[in-house]
Amino acid sequence: MNSLKWTLLFCIVALQACSGQQQQKEQKYDIAAFYWPAYHYEPRLEFIFPEKRGEWEIIDHAIPKEPGHQQPKVPLWGFVDEADPAVMDQKIKTAVSHGVNVFLFDWYWYDNKPLLEDCIDNGFMKANKGRMKFYLMWANHDATSYWDVKNPKIDSVYWKGSVDRSTFNTIVDRVINKYFKDPSYYKINGAPVFCLYELNTFIDGLGGAEEAKEALEYFRKKTVEAGFPDLHLQSILWSALPSTIAGVPGDKVETQSEVLQYFGFNSLTNYCWAHLQNPEGDYEKWADASVAMWNKFDTDFSIPYFPNITVGWDANPRFQFKSGYITNPAPDKFEKYFRKALDYADAHPDQPKLITVNAWNEWSEGSYLEPDSVYGRGYLEAIKKVLEEKSQRTD
After folding, report:
1. Within 13 Å and on the Cβ side, how many CA atoms surround 185?
2. pTM exceeds 0.90 for this model
3. Who has the most CB within 10 Å: 7, 11, 69, 286?
C-alpha cells in the first residue's frame, strides 16, 4: 500500500511539474496586446460613468452616425466586469490559446493617486497564475473629456498627466515593488520593460530635459537596487516624442534618435496607426501607409523598433458629433499586416521578436481583438493561423 501511495504521489508531482513547464513554455514571438482597463467600476470616474459599468456605458449606448456606419460594437462575451478574476480568466485563456502571450496595460496616475488599477490587481494578477506576461505603459496624458461623451468639449482637462519629482519617486517605488517583482512581469534580458506614452508631458512635469533625464536615471538605479540587471525603457513613437531638445548645456540633441539616447530609452513602438496616419477611410490604404513607415524608423533610430499592428479605428462612441473612422476592417486584412510584422521581426534577428497590437479591448476606439458579434474570434484566429504557419516553417 505504501509503495502504491508513493507511486501515486510521484505521478502527481510529475504531472504538476509538466503542467508548470507547459505554463512557462515560451513561443518564438511575443505578441503584446495593449489593454485599456476601463471596463469595471472605478469610483473616481463615476462622474463620467454613473451606471458604474465603466466605459461599457458608452459602448452600450453607441449609435450609427450615418447610413452603413457599424455601430454599436457588440461584445460576444457581454458587458463583463474585468476586475472579476473569473472574467479575466476567460480573457487570459482565450488570449494565450491564440498566441497573444502579453497584455500591455495602460496605466494611470492622476492627482497623486492611481486610476483603473483594479483591472490589473483584482482581475489579472489574481487570475493569471503564470499563464501570460504583462507590462505597463504609463499613459501619462491629461485625463480629458475625450472619455466623457456627455461633455461636448472634448479637450476639457479633468486631471493633468504631468507629475513632479516627488510624485515620480512615489510612482517608481510603486511600480517596482507592486509590478516588477511579480514573476509574470515582462522582461527583456532580465530587465523589466516599462513604456512611456508622452515624453513631452513627462519633461514638462519634471521641469526640463535635465531634470527628466536624472529622474529616469534614478528609476534605473532603483530597479537595479531591487535586484534586476537593468531597466528596459520603451518609448511610444508619435508626436508626443519631441523632435529635438533645446537648452541642454553641452549637448546637441537635434533628432528624435538623439532624444531617446539622451534619456536612456532602450526601444520604441507605436500605440496605434491613428498616431501615424489620419484614421479615415479604407483600412488597407491606412495600413499600407503606416507599415511603409517601418523602414524609415529603422534608419532614423539607433535603438530597436518593435512593429505595431492596429485592428481598426472608430472613436465615434466617445463623441456627440461624427468623427472620421476606418471603413471595412476585417480579420483577413488584419492577417496580411500581422504577417508583415512577423516578417519584420524575422528580418531583425538581433532584437527580441516583440510585436505590439492595438488592442485587446479598445472598444470605444473600434480597435479590439476580443470576440464581437460580427467576426467572433476572427482576429484572434488570424493571429493563431499566422503563428502556426511560421512555426511549421521553422520546425
Report:
1. 22
2. yes
3. 286
